[in-house]
Amino acid sequence: MSDQLATLRAKRQQALKGGGAKRIESQHARGKLTARERLSILLDEASFQELGALATHHNTDFGMADHRYPGDGIITGFGKIQGRRVAVFAQDFTVLGGSFSEVQSNKISRIQDLAIEAGIPLIGLNDSGGARVQEGVRSLAAYGEVFVRNVKASGVIPQISLILGPCAGGAVYSPALTDVTIMVDQTSNMFLTGPDIIKTVTGEIVTAEELGGAFVHNATSGVAQVMADNEQHALSLTKALLAYLPQNNTEDPPALDPYDPADRMDEALNAVIPDDDNAPYDMLHVMGRIFDRDSIFQLHRDWASNALVGFARLDGQSVGFIANNPQVMAGCLDINASDKIARHITLCDQFNIPLVTFVDCPGYLPGVEQEYNGVIRHGAKIIYAYCQATVPKISLVTRKAMGGSYVALSSKQMNNDVAFAWPSAQIAVMGAEGAARLLNRRAIESADDPAAEEARFIAEYREKFYNPYQAADVGQIDEVIEPRETRPRLIRALEVLRTKVTQSIPKKHGLFPV
Q: Is residue 153 classed as helix, strand or coil in its secondary structure?
């Protein structure tokens, strides 16, 4: 038995070494941690239970028989984060560049299946040069096994992807199928075809960072939702994000013991809306005064910043927020903002996270480019997502709610549960100037003083429609409240809606306007 134990211990020791000391040094020289170092930071101490540590590939083509490593370039297993059970996998770049193989697929698929069965979050740490070319079509088929399980797990358990190095070719689709993707600035990149292939095919010269770096995917493409300063920051953000999400779709998100008084009123909110209708203000600052202190976790911070989405807490309870940002494009909706909002609604709904919507929107962005690129189709995603969502939905109109954007952004007709408005709310079909030209053009043109007649009509229209009271009079707004009352009002509404029950029409699925 002693010999057998010695053999087991030797194999385990070999697995811990990854690709060997030189490759570990090379990994550190790139400013990157090893897969095991990352897991030791992410998981609670001594909580990791590894599976498949001794698995190796069986390929002999292209000299691969001489390059077998226990684990085959990926570490999989279970652990705990802040006491909560999670499933994890971490690609090991020190072993054959972390190249994706049939064995890697088998190990990831196994941990995906177990995570779904156990109802626990799955976290993937990606750091791979792509498919293992030596395995041919088998490595491509291996991707498909992972993708189908990503889809199976979607809406059942939270799936979080960390990109901690390269992620190329077919490998990019797995993170794209997960709920949240976190990238590291200047270290990670994602692309379907790399710079060399692009240069050969199109003649374009671009670096990996310019093509698919963290900032590109967080600010331009919208592929990633969070950008971290370094790997330690990425792992810390993962822990923070997980605290807002439940273990699975049958549970409620975890609550914290309340630390901020539920009846707290902030007098500064009564003066936050500028007297000038077109003057911007900081919506993130407004939400910071309403939600539990220091509880806001933003997603898509740098992409489509005319809209704000993320998570926060109210009296310790996890909520999702959606808000227009008057500081960017006056908070209007466009193609990217529509995609951003619809995705977040769906994310919150699938994990039982109530939605709070802050509305200050002058409408959809006009323009030929927007129409040609399908703003109608993209804008419809918001409507579909709100109508489909069954979680508690509360809206607050802080200032403008014009035209179709009023309807789309969690209005009563979108199955909203409670609708509040501040006295500064302006709920109308269109702006006063446009209404003057549309409704009173002949009277203005025939008047002795057209400018004075137009000004008179604009003032009349503003007095009638640029307030929340007509909407409240017909029941489209439940209550007009003082801004300082917002926090306690939201908390009380959520208390009532916590036991909300809805009935859905049985169907396979609808046609989401993709």
A: helix
State the sign of the Cα–Cα–Cα–Cα dihedral 40, 68, 115, 128. positive
How many CB atoms within 10 Å of residue 22?
A: 9
Q: How far apart are CA 512 and CA 335, in angstroms?
A: 15
- Sequential DSSP letters for 403-419: HHHHHHTT-GGGT-SEE
Task: Give the alpha-carbon dihedral of 192, 194, 197, 199, to 10 degrees.
Answer: 120
E strands along 290-333, which residues?
297-299, 307-314, 317-324
pTM: 0.93
Task: Indicate the domain borders of the chain.
Answer: 11-242, 267-425+467-497, 431-465
Amino acid at 271: A
Look at 107 and 504; give whichever has higher pLDDT: 107
Q: What is the mean pLDDT of residues 159-173?
A: 92
CA distance 194 to 107: 27
**Contact in structure between 101 and 132 (CB atoms under 8 Å):** yes
> Where residue 8 falls among pLDDT bands split at 50, 70, 90?
confident
Give pLDDT, residue 59. Answer: 67
Q: Which helix (H) or strand (E) holds 161?
A: strand 159-163
Answer positive or negative: Cα dihedral of 444, 447, 451, 455. Answer: negative
The 8-class DSSP code of residue 216 comes to I
Q: Which fold has domain 11-242?
A: 2-enoyl-CoA Hydratase; Chain A, domain 1 (3.90.226)
**What integer pLDDT is reported at residue 513 of this predicted model?**
92
Three-state DSSP class for residue 41? helix
Say how far apart CA 245 and CA 7 lie, in whole Å.
42
Angle between helices 486-497 and 283-290 (to 10 degrees): 70
Instruction: Please give the pLDDT value at position 168.
Output: 87
Q: What angle (nearest 5°) sits at the alpha carbon of residue 85, between those of residues 78 and 256?
A: 155
Whether 11-242 and 267-425+467-497 share one fold: the answer is yes
Question: Hey, what are 192's tokens?
Answer: 């379907």
Please report which confidence band the pLDDT of residue 395 belongs to, taking 50, 70 and 90 as the band edges. Answer: very high
157-183 mean pLDDT: 94
CATH assignment of 267-425+467-497, given 3.40.50.1000, 3.90.226.10, 3.40.390.10, 3.30.70.20?
Answer: 3.90.226.10
Beta bridge partners of 162: 125, 182
> Among 165-174, 181-190, 283-292, whose mean pLDDT is lowest?
165-174
State how far the Cα of 228 lies from the Cα of 234, in Å rounded to an integer. 5
Contact 183, 133 (CB under 8 A): no
